Amino acid sequence: MRLKIAILGVEHYHANFWAGAFLQRPEVEIIGVWDQAADKAAEFAGRHGIEVQDDLHRLIRKSHAVAICSATSGHLMLVEAAAALGRPVLCEKPLGIDRAQCDAIAAVVARTGIRFMQSFPKRFDPANHEIARLLQEKVLGRVTLCRVRHGHSHGLTEVFRSAWFVDPTRSGGGTLLDEGVHAADFLRWMFGEPESVFATLSSAALGLPVEDTAVATFRYADGLIAEVTTSWCFAAADTSIEIYGTEGSILLSGVDIASRPTRETDFLRVFRRGEGEGWSASDVVPSFKTGVFHEHVAWAFVDALKKGGPMPVTIEDGRKAFTMIEAAYRSAATGRVQMIGT
What is the pLDDT of residues 52-93, one digit of tens each? Predict the structure, then answer.
């Protein structure tokens, strides 16, 4: 029997990647798409050769699972609708527009027991898995600093500046949430939970209701400092991730829109101290560079549904990454260091 998946909401462009990924799997059938804006649903359906459904609950009943790719403000309503019928959910990031919405979604998932996967595509990138291996093997010795620069230049286009991303009632925030939540999840995956954060925001470049540029500095109990720099105005860039330790360093390029066209080789570079000191380059190619990135989330969701067991990225991953960013917003608003999760 083919796995029947319904796509709920198409305002986030990643819905296009998910639809393409689902359609590549012969054991999967997209049984329909729904969006609050009927014209958007019809345009999306026509582009991908799937059916439009105007009755949300009827579509969910016909499905085995749902993929939610609406504006962030729509996540709670759609999770509630899917959970009411016991359907597993793949949900776009960030989890919600604020902590209250994130907590409400988590409560629905806990109460109904549905299977839930948060979309964090960096979890499936082979370059990041290689970094995780190097850190686990203590190649860098004691890690002292990590810097993550993540963003794009879409903010320099009129189309993006008029989209829902720049409306805080629908998106929850600007580049710090939109792009920074990726970095927050990466930091949690590599280093665990930070203790505190200090952040600053700017909307000066684009003059939008939300920030177009942000820097958040997280501190860990062991003294590790992790800097997250995000922007919608990165015209071009190279290195996106830098990790420094007492015995070496790691540099990674080609993992965000700004850095994707910069280089064709040597994306992951490692410096080792001591005997044989010097730089080496891994032959790993980041998924983002290959042009197949967000698709891995959809494929992982399908695999988890088929095999059973836990989802590879959980609702707690979504909540905790959001909590890091929410604390950064509090810091920017108060001008003071904020403890994470308080």
Answer: 999 999 999 999 999 999 999 999 999 999 999 999 999 999
Helix 180-191 and helix 315-334, axial crossing angle in degrees, nearest 10: 120
Helix (H) or strand (E) segment spanning residue 15? helix 14-23
Distance CA 139, CA 133 (A): 9
Under DSSP, the state recorded for 13 is: T
- The closest of 95, 29, 45, 114 to 302, measured between CA atoms, is 29
- Please report, for residues 16, 33, 53, 101, 170, the alpha-carbon distance to residue 10 in angstroms, rounded to integers and kept in the order given: 8, 8, 13, 20, 14
Map out the domains of the chain with their CATH numbers. Answer: 3-114 (3.40.50.720), 122-288+323-339 (3.30.360.10)
Distance, CA of 279 to CA of 139 (rounded, Å): 13
Joined tokens for residue 70: 């609406």
Give 216's DSSP letter.
E
- What is the biggest distance separating any 2 CA atoms in the chain, rounded to whole angstroms? 66
The pLDDT tens digits of the residues spanning 211-270 come to: 999 999 999 999 999 999 999 999 999 999 999 999 999 999 999 999 988 899 999 999
Any idea which residue has 């796509």 for tokens?
7
User: C-alpha distances in angstroms, 198 versus 182, 192, 218, 234, 305?
Assistant: 18, 18, 7, 22, 39
Distance CA 68, CA 163 (A): 18
214 φ/ψ angles, rounded to the nearest 5 degrees: -155, 150
- Three-state DSSP class for 281? strand
Distance, CA of 223 to CA of 143 (rounded, Å) = 9
Note if the pTM is more than 0.90. Answer: yes
- Gap between the Cα atoms of 123 and 313, Å rounded: 8
Give 228-247 as a DSSP string: EEEES-----SEEEEEEESS
Rounded Cα–Cα distance for residues 111 and 30 (Å): 27
26: phi then psi, degrees, rounded to nearest 5:
-65, -20
Q: Residue 309: exposed, middle, or buried by beta-carbon count in 10 A (0-12, 13-18, 19+)?
A: exposed
